[in-house]
Design goal:
Blueprint: E1 2-8, H1 12-30, E2 34-39, E3 45-50, H2 55-64, E4 73-80
Antiparallel strand pairs: 1-3, 1-4, 2-3
Length: 86
């Protein structure tokens, strides 16, 4: 599993790109690749939890979604996570 941490800045581009991004995450959730996703309570960033086998799969998801390269969106960290409870 992987955790993606995002930081948000003020940007009209980010807000305009968000609906398509959420649609992509919803489709990945239906496929079982996205377990959890959502903004932090103060909207300063977001967390996405992926259930994919390796970093290459994470990178494919990040590359396929233009939101991650949108002004106002910064990928702060991509971390492999090994939960013992699910």
């Amino acid at each position: 599993m992987w955790i993606i941490e995002l930081a948000f800045g003020e940007s009209a581009e980010r807000l305009a790109a968000r609906p398509a991004h959420r649609d992509k995450l919803t489709a990945l959730h239906a496929q079982g690749q996205v377990l959890l996703a959502g903004p932090l309570a103060d909207d300063s960033g977001a967390v996405i939890v992926l259930d994919v086998p390796d970093r290459e799969a994470v990178d494919r998801i990040l590359t396929a979604d233009p939101y991650f390269a949108t002004t106002g969106v910064t990928v702060v960290a991509v971390r492999e996570w090994k939960p013992f409870l699910r």
